[in-house]
Amino acid sequence: MEAVFKDVLQVGVVVKDLDSTMKTYADKYGIGPWVVYEFNKDTVADMEVEGERQDYRMKLAVADIGGVQWELIEPLDEISDYAKFLKEHGEGIHHVALDTESYESALKFCEENDLDPLQYGYWGSNFHYDYRKTQEDLKCIVELYGPEEDFEWPEPDAVYPEGPMEKEAVFKDLLQVGVVVKDLDSTMKTYADKYGIGPWVVYEFNKDTVVDMEIEGERQDYRMKLAVADIGGVQWELIEPLDEISDYAKFLKEHGEGIHHVALDTESYESALEFCEENDLDPLQYGYWGSNFHYDYRKTQEDLKCIVELYGPEEDFEWPEPDAVYPEEKSKV
Fold this sequence. Notes:
CATH architecture of the largest domain: Roll
GO molecular function, one term: methylmalonyl-CoA epimerase activity
Structural class: alpha+beta
Strand content: 35-45%
Helix content: 10-25%
Protein name: VOC domain-containing protein
Largest sheet: 11 strands, mixed
Strand order of the largest sheet: 4-3-8-9-10-7-1-6-5-2-11
CATH class of the largest domain: Alpha Beta
CATH topology of the largest domain: 2,3-Dihydroxybiphenyl 1,2-Dioxygenase, domain 1
Number of domains: 2
Keywords: Metal-binding
CATH superfamily of the largest domain: 2,3-Dihydroxybiphenyl 1,2-Dioxygenase, domain 1
Shape: globular
Radius of gyration: 20 Å
Pfam families: Glyoxalase_4
InterPro entries: Glyas_Bleomycin-R_OHBP_Dase, MMCE/EMCE_epimerase, VOC_core
């Protein structure tokens, strides 16, 4: 079947203090400028929570990391799903907005597949934002975009910084979204068979396939099964921990299934390492796969409210033969 979701448009991060977080993104990481809005009953019509008419308030700021919009959201009441997420999980990635053939076709798909509304609003009388209950299937919340033909970004409440950006962006683009799951095979098949996302290539990472494994800078072997496929220009990774050692297992225990990390592009792996050392961004988890690919998670949660993975493929890196492919056809990787 044809893929329902065509590309990644936005990553939405719920935060406690938008102004402080936005300034850290801009001043420390060179990400910006940011445009700031308040969404409330005066700026957004027909607000709903779980299909019921309900006003709520939040402050948000958006900027671009490469070709993907980054959204910071501070709930201003206890009503919205953002507030619920913050209470249950703390700061972190709340949703991804995924591109579809059209908003109307996406609505039809949701209705046919019982993907009920989670939260909705009609901003500026020409933009629908529509979160769906995709957590059971996709292990994350998906937002549907519904801009009308005449949509233009309105004048923001504020811009940060007010002048030109003084620092070059450390992170250049979104490479990967990593989702921790309980049952990789079942989740992968749902992505492929129900949503048309795939094919998936499957690998097991363990002490025999990955060398120099580390947890928080200490040498430690761990095991996980992973599968990767593409949604547009972004790699989607499903990860099932196979022990209680890895940070994936810790995340699953503390938060349940969900988005664990994002991999962001940098000028080079070496320049990213230098930045991390200069800014006390300590290692969270590391491995050296196939003797030519470094994957390196850093403790960016305090600054960016999410875990960032650094990619370190060497010049001779090629994807090895997978343990399995689903469906059984030639992979795109």
